[in-house]
């Protein structure tokens, strides 16, 4: 008789192991990896950050990036390439183009050194260039690093280290460049790459022990706040990892989100460290407007008033910003008081209140100092 | 002596294509199975299905081969499962790969069935659709790609045969669409589907009835209907007993304890997150008790704080109490408003705590 497979394999339910993110990642990876037999995986032999051939070609065609030029030659008709700073750029795989030449591929140790260079010398140094330029360069070069890893099917500690730094960089960037014009920073593109890195990283964590796993499981949950798949994934983690402080805090934030308790959520968010704030920040503005929505209904009464200062404290905003947020959401504010009314709250905010306005104010110098330690993870 | 490793020649002598290929592959498959080589068995089975499909497509206005299709596709899925398990135990193979490929094959079969517009109803291949859909559901749930269920659901919804398939097939179908509705937080629909599945599931299939209940119970609880102790005992689902008791009494402490105690079970079944949604119902029940105790429609917020503290909910203050109340009001569980100045919850004099089943 037909034995139903419900009984056969159902205990192996693999819900929520970040499959949604994996989907995108897998599709991208499969585009890059050409149809090679299992035993002919390329092994790179290029020991410099940029393959010699590409370096000569780009120098001759004046396609070097500012960060790759010998200092002082930037304004020349044909700037010189600085071998110690040139980094292989990302190139789209194409028919007829062989991306598997060993001399063009960098082995894992070189890839890790490349990433450290990108972080220390470019992302974290106080260059005179605007950080949007820094982001654009590092983003592209990191993508090329990942491409080399995919082609060579790299796995193991070097792969994990590269991915961890990539994730931190992309999270940091999503916070620092939040609100920038689309041409300089597209949050959706950043998100796509972040999700790809995260799902690859979380998949890598399944084998062996990894020093920073707790941190990144927590970051993944915070970044994907509200996703039941991300939640289920964390719930299925081994006890040791789930009970770590980082994951516990992330779970608490997630629970507050699921229970729709923005007061609690915003309070818990104060306990997050910098990189965790970077991960969760895009969910905070919707959380604040949700608070106003709930209070508009819960405190809806013509005669009652709510103290503005108290509301601002609940929202963890300065008074002036709280007022602006109320106005944008249709909540009536007069001087010191807020009058909630369920009919006046508006879902489609008038005017524009950017998430960026609610970040902690940090001037450029301080941004640059923290970048290195944040991305390397030794805060 | 039917377990041969290379039966092609013999088959070609005796049978016409594509049956020769199909039978040869089937024989190779039985050989592989006897050697417990499920990876090989799966590969053979794909050939069986592919060659069968060639023959099936050539059957114009006939559907006598449907039982063969059912058997072949079922085996395909089961071998894919087994093969993946074998590879996993050796540390190889990407999880879900083989099942996805099996799903693609099933979809090919599905398309052949669904596009059979010529034959009369008795000879139509469309009678094969629901079986295949159920197989596909099982795969999609296993590999966690629930969004792929949608086009299949649409196909059945628009079919005029949908109420005429066998009860067994419909029970399975409703089970999966019920679970999908739960995943989409559409609890009213989920209840409808799962309840159908439960009542129509044959009483001898205790294991299946239990499976359906595992999903039906949380949905019913969210809608305010608690299961009886007898029901839980009958189907060996006592894990829900403490949860039920906690929710109906408004006992948050017991609820948290119950969720932790049976965490592994709930997570494995994929219902842990939904059971957490019962917290809001538990708050509602707790606060309703406070209302009945104080017998006034102007309730001091402090009373709720005291009630929560009695439930050992320690790290909650008056602001959080207000937030929880605001949420309950927003969701329609409480009719009233909060006056911060008077530190009171003012509730409607009429039916301030509407019955759970009437609230969305």
TrEMBL record, chain A:
Gene name tied to this protein: LOC107696954
Any one of the GO BP annotations: centrosome duplication
Biased composition (Basic and acidic residues): 24-40, 81-91
Region (Disordered): 1-40, 81-103
Signal peptide, first to last residue: none
Superkingdom classification of source: Eukaryota
Residue span, SAC3/GANP/THP3 conserved domain: 49-334
Basic residues compositional bias, start-end: 12-23
PANTHER family according to UniProt: 80 KDA MCM3-ASSOCIATED PROTEIN, SAC3 DOMAIN-CONTAINING PROTEIN 1
Pfam families in the cross-refs: SAC3_GANP
Name by which UniProt lists this protein: SAC3 domain-containing protein 1-like
Gene Ontology cellular-component terms listed: centrosome; nucleus; spindle
Automatic annotation (TrEMBL), chain B:
Molecular function in Gene Ontology: double-stranded DNA binding; RNA binding
Name of protein: PCI domain-containing protein 2
Residue ranges of every copy of the PCI domain listed in the record: 171-352
Superkingdom of the organism of origin: Eukaryota
Pfam (any one): PCI
Gene Ontology terms describing biological process: poly(A)+ mRNA export from nucleus; post-transcriptional tethering of RNA polymerase II gene DNA at nuclear periphery; transcription elongation by RNA polymerase II
Record-stated family: Belongs to the CSN12 family.
This protein's GO CC annotations: transcription export complex 2
InterPro entries xref list: Csn12-like, PCI_dom, WH-like_DNA-bd_sf
């Amino acid at each position: 008789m037909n034995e139903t497979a419900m009984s056969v394999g159902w205990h192996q339910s693999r819900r929520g192991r970040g499959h949604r993110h994996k989907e995108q990642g897998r599709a991208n990876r499969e585009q890059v990896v050409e149809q090679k037999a299992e035993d002919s995986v390329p092994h790179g032999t290029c020991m410099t950050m940029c393959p010699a051939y590409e370096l000569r070609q780009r120098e001759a065609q004046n396609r070097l990036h500012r960060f790759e030029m010998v200092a002082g030659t930037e304004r020349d008709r044909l700037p010189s390439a600085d071998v110690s700073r040139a980094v292989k750029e990302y190139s789209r795989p194409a028919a007829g183009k062989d991306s598997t030449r060993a001399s063009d591929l960098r082995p894992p140790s070189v890839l890790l050194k490349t990433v450290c260079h990108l972080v220390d010398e470019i992302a974290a140094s106080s260059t005179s260039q605007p950080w949007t330029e820094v982001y654009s360069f590092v983003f592209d070069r990191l993508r090329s690093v990942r491409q080399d890893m995919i082609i060579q099917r790299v796995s193991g500690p070097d792969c994990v280290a590269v991915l961890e730094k990539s994730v931190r960089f992309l999270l940091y960037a999503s916070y620092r460049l939040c609100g920038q014009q689309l041409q300089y920073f597209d949050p959706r593109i950043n998100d796509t790459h972040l999700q790809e890195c995260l799902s690859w990283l979380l998949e890598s964590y399944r084998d062996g022990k990894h020093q920073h796993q707790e941190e990144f499981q927590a970051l993944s949950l915070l970044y994907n706040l509200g996703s039941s798949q991300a939640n289920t994934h964390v719930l299925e983690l081994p006890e040791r990892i789930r009970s770590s402080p980082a994951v516990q805090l992330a779970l608490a934030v997630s629970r507050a989100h699921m229970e729709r308790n923005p007061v609690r959520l915003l309070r818990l968010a104060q306990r997050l460290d910098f990189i965790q704030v970077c991960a969760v920040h895009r969910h905070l503005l919707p959380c604040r407007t949700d608070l106003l929505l709930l209070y508009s209904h819960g405190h809806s009464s013509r005669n009652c008033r709510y103290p503005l200062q108290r509301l601002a404290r609940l929202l963890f905003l300065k008074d002036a910003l709280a007022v602006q947020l109320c106005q944008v959401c249709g909540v009536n504010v007069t001087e010191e008081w807020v009058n909630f009314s369920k009919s006046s709250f508006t879902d489609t905010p008038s005017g524009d209140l950017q998430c960026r306005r609610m970040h902690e104010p940090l001037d450029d110098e301080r941004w640059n100092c923290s970048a290195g330690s944040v991305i390397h993870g030794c805060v | 002596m039917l377990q041969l490793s290379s039966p092609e020649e013999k088959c070609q002598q005796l049978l016409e294509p594509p049956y020769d290929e199909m039978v040869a592959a089937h024989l190779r498959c039985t050989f592989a199975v006897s050697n417990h080589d499920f990876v090989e068995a799966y590969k053979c089975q794909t050939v069986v299905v592919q060659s069968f499909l060639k023959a099936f497509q050539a059957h114009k206005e006939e559907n006598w081969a449907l039982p063969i299709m059912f058997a072949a596709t079922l085996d395909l899925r089961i071998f894919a499962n087994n093969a993946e398990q074998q590879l996993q135990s050796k540390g190889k193979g990407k999880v879900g790969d083989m099942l996805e490929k099996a799903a693609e094959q099933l979809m090919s079969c599905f398309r052949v069935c669904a596009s059979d517009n010529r034959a009369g109803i008795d000879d139509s291949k469309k009678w094969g659709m629901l079986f295949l859909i159920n197989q596909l559901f099982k795969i999609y749930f296993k590999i966690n790609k629930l969004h792929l269920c949608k086009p299949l659901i649409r196909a059945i919804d628009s079919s005029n045969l949908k109420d005429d398939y066998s009860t067994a097939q419909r029970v399975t179908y409703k089970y999966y669409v019920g679970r999908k509705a739960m995943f989409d937080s559409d609890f009213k629909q989920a209840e409808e589907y799962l309840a159908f599945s439960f009542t129509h599931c044959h009483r001898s299939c205790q294991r299946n009835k239990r499976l359906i209940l595992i999903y039906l119970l949380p949905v019913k609880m969210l809608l305010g209907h608690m299961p009886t102790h007898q029901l839980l005992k009958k189907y060996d689902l006592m894990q829900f007993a403490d949860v039920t008791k906690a929710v109906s009494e408004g006992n948050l402490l017991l609820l948290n304890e119950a969720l932790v105690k049976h965490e592994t079970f709930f997570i494995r079944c994929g219902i842990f997150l939904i059971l957490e949604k019962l917290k809001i119902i538990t708050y509602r029940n707790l606060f309703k008790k406070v209302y009945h105790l104080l017998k006034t429609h102007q309730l001091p917020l402090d009373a709720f704080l005291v009630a929560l503290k009695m439930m050992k909910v320690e790290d909650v203050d008056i602001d959080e109490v207000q937030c929880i109340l605001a949420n309950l009001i927003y969701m329609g569980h409480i009719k009233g408003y909060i006056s911060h100045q008077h530190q009171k919850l003012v509730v409607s004099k009429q039916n301030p705590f509407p019955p759970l089943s009437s609230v969305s």
